[in-house]
């Protein structure tokens, strides 16, 4: 495991176990840091402190004096003093306290630190004031202007109405929390743009774009958005319906037997959702088991539109490869295979179907490059019936058609695939 991956795992564990008395949950072995470079320890400390204050802000929604600052500072100083300069660490903690004070309205007593750090405290205050004005506000204003004629109030959610209960998912750009709506008492999912991207203009625009895309959908197989909001500093969040159940990824991980009839029912619902998405001129571009939820009533809901594209986007320009390579169509990796289109999502459905039928991916390699090369070179895919002789010839044929390298050889639309996969017709035979 790389050092970066190790750090990400530690941060995720810290978040999952966080409480307002989080220092009692801090169980990273002290001896671990002896083999680390100082820059890695400093990065970990910076992220831990940021997460700690961020969660204190998001989880309270209350103003008033924060009296625990001295004990929090003392804890981190004691823990990291052998690896990080004490002055540098204290300044880091104070800067996060100032940021939290601005965001939450909580009062901190900085008097014990003014004599030694007064000059730096003033600089932090000025810097944090400028973050919102220079980076966040123009993008949010643009979003509000775009939506001023339609449902503008839906995208002006007050963050203080939500009580975060626990972290339920972490992605490359966002984190999702299970939360309670104080006003209605309902459970919701709250998706926050990750802290390190809250001053990144491109990521802010992409996050707002996801909210804009989501508000186009009104379908039983697509997740419903409740609104877009921001914490006082400008950090953005999206509020979604809470789905009680699990993802198809978790379903696969459980190793439970799933009949072909059930697989057809799930894929049929995925395609119903896709048909609605495509009818709005949108391509999902990151369809995979982790982004498909299964509620307690066995109903499919497509979620996570962070990489979604409008069908009329100009793809002639050079574009970054975005998504999960195992589920990407060749045209997502190299535009020489064509434009991103509805057939792009059909390919991903084929990978998901293959995975359920065979319990393995069509291409198995260790690296992004190896999988991408296999797809771009049209490396043959093993027929799913060779790996699972119990499945029907028809579903194996459907799966292989979805996985054609050439987009025009796949099903032309989700509607075509719906007719082919129809579980009712299969069950009556």
Automatic annotation (TrEMBL):
It is an enzyme of class 2 (transferase). Its EC number is 2.7.11.1. PROSITE patterns: PROTEIN_KINASE_ATP, PROTEIN_KINASE_DOM, PROTEIN_KINASE_ST. One of its GO terms (molecular function) is protein serine/threonine kinase activity. Coiled coil: none annotated. Keywords: ATP-binding, Kinase, Nucleotide-binding, Transferase. Residues 162-425 form the Protein kinase domain. Pfam families: Pkinase (PF00069). SUPFAM superfamilies: Protein kinase-like (PK-like). One of its GO terms (cellular component) is cytoplasm. The keyword Hydrolase does not apply. This is Serine/threonine-protein kinase PrkC. The gene is prkC_20.
């Amino acid at each position: 495991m790389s050092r970066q991956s190790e750090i990400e795992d530690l941060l995720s564990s810290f978040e999952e176990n966080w409480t307002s008395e989080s220092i009692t949950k801090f169980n990273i072995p002290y001896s671990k840091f002896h083999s680390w470079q100082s820059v890695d320890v400093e990065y970990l400390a910076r992220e831990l402190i940021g997460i700690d204050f961020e969660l204190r802000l998001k989880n309270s929604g209350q103003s008033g004096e924060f009296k625990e600052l001295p004990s929090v500072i003392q804890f981190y100083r004691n823990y990291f003093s052998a690896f990080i300069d004490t002055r540098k660490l204290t300044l880091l903690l104070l800067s996060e306290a100032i940021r939290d004070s601005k965001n939450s309205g909580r009062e901190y007593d900085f008097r014990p630190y003014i004599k030694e750090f007064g000059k730096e405290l003033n600089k932090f205050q000025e810097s944090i004031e400028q973050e919102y004005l220079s980076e966040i506000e123009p993008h949010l204003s643009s979003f509000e202007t775009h939506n001023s004629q339609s449902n503008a109030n839906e995208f002006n959610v007050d963050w203080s109405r939500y009580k975060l209960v626990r972290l339920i998912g972490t992605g490359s750009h966002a984190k999702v929390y299970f939360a309670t709506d104080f006003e209605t008492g309902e459970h919701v999912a709250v998706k926050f743009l990750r802290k390190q991207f809250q001053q990144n203009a491109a990521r802010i625009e992409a996050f707002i774009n996801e909210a804009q895309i989501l508000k186009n959908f009104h379908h039983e197989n697509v997740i419903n958005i409740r609104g877009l909001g921001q914490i006082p500093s400008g950090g953005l969040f999206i509020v979604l319906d809470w789905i009680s159940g699990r993802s198809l990824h978790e379903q696969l991980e459980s190793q439970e037997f799933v009949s072909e009839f059930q697989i057809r029912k799930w894929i049929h619902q995925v395609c119903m959702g896709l048909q609605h998405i495509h009818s709005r001129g949108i391509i999902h571009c990151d369809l995979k088991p982790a982004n498909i939820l299964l509620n307690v009533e066995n109903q499919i809901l497509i979620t996570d539109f962070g990489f979604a594209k409008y069908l009329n986007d100009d793809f002639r320009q050079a574009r970054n490869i975005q998504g999960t390579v195992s589920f990407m169509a060749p045209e997502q990796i190299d535009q020489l295979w064509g434009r991103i289109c509805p057939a792009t999502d059909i390919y991903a459905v084929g990978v998901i179907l293959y995975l359920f039928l065979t319990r393995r991916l069509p291409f198995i390699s260790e690296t992004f490059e190896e999988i991408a090369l296999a797809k771009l070179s049209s490396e043959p895919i093993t027929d799913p019936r060779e790996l699972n002789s119990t499945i029907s010839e028809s579903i194996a044929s459907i799966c292989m058609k979805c996985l054609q390298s050439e987009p025009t050889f796949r099903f032309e639309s989700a509607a075509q695939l719906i007719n082919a996969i129809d579980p009712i017709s299969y069950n009556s035979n």
